[in-house]
Amino acid sequence: MKELDENIIIRFIQGQCSDEELQAVKEWIDVSGDNRDELFRLERLYRDMAASVVNPAKIDTAMKRVMDKAMRDDAAESDDASVSKQRSTLAITLSYCRRYAAAVLVLLVAGAAFWYTSRPNAAVKEDEKIVSVSAPSNATREVVLPDGTRLWLNRGATVSYPESFSDSLRHVRLKGEAYFEVAKNAAKPFVVSSDNMSVKVLGTIFNFNTGSPSRPVAEVSLIEGSGEASSLKSPGQVVLSPGQKARLDYSAGRFTVENVDPHIDAVWHSGMISFDNATVSDIARTLERLYGVHIIVDPSVDTRRTYSGTIVRKGGIDSVLQLLQYTLPIIHRYDGNHIVISSRKG
């Protein structure tokens, strides 16, 4: 695959890619690990430099100094193998990413200059009012954000956001679980962050669970659109497509991606359990995940038969299994702490 256009790289780092451009980025990084590492080094470079200095003149000076150092290190590397061990993180980034470093440098300096000259008053941001909304421990709660984004907080979850978003970014913080329907705005990326993980989108539907002390796992499941999930505790970043889940085990530092049915993660919000050509074994695995039970499928069950349909989730697992029995020739019983599904005769 040919090299990715620098303008797409810039828009990706700014969080302003279209869905088509995000797909192009995903295809490009899937080609090789070098492409993926190059892109994420560049993004870390941009974020680190933007966060560490405010004055654009200082950014320019710092970037030139780093570029000069990377050049000198490259020239001396063949004579002194120990130099590579002494490079700074930013010098390593630029030596690997020469292909796009100039474009990122322009983006960083120009962006900082605009921010520095057009920002009306630093104190306004510092004094900006932050709104916090929480769901009760026994119910969910809908929240509409200033940009029209709608989200639903699961029981006990909290979202915090400014009364009005900035000109360049829509940023909210989440604790707990929430379902998001993000209003489209290509000029303002929408970022949801927790203590361990962040998600960046433009206009997307996704479910985000930040985890808890008793369950140190953060998960984001993408239902529609495109998004970028990042680990804030360890190296890790991925562009997600619908039907994918990014999972961060922050106690172990593992960041993984898997293909899933994202609607299952959002059952708490929709109240609907959907099955598409699912066997009894598939249904059992889904119900185990939703209800935290262990289900055994008896060998007497015809596992070739499939079921498609939607069940309203009301009450406990017994009510769901009873509804399924109207369509599938199965029965269920309890065996200690397990549920056994077997074939219904006649």
Characterization of the model:
Strands 1-4-5-7-8-11-12 form a 7-stranded mixed beta sheet, covered by helices on one side. It has helices at about 5-15, 20-30, 35-50, 55-75, 85, 90-95, 100-120, 120-125, 260-265, 265-270, 280-290, 315-325; strands at about 130-135, 140-145, 150-155, 160, 170-175, 175-180, 190-195, 195-200, 205-210, 215-225, 225-230, 235-240, 245-250, 255-260, 270-280, 295, 305-310, 330-335, 340-345. Helix 1 packs across helix 7, helix 4 (about 55-75) crosses helix 6 and helix 4 packs antiparallel against helix 7. With about 350 residues, it is of the alpha+beta class. It has 12 helices and 19 strands. The radius of gyration is 24 Å and the shape is globular.
* Distance between the first and last residues' Cα: 59 Å
User: How many helices does DSSP assign?
Assistant: 12
Secondary-structure-derived class = alpha+beta
Which residues sit in consecutive blocks of at least 5 with pLDDT less than 50?
Answer: 50-60, 77-99, 109-124
Query: Nearest-angstrom radius of gyration?
Result: 24 Å
Instruction: Note the main sheet.
Output: 7 strands, mixed
Number of strands: 19
Strand percentage: 25-35%
Oligomer: single chain
Helix content: 25-40%
Q: Round the mean pLDDT to the nearest integer and report it.
A: 76
Query: Reading side by side through the largest sheet, how are the strands ordered?
Result: 1-4-5-7-8-11-12
- Shape summary: globular
Outline:
The chain contains twelve helices and 19 strands. The protein has helices at 6-14, 19-31, 33-52, 56-76, 83-86, 89-96, 98-118, 122-126, 262-265, 267-270, 280-291, 317-324; strands at residues 130-134, 141-144, 150-153, 158-162, 170-175, 177-181, 190-193, 197-201, 205-209, 217-224, 227-231, 237-240, 244-249, 254-259, 272-279, 294-297, 306-312, 330-335, 338-343.
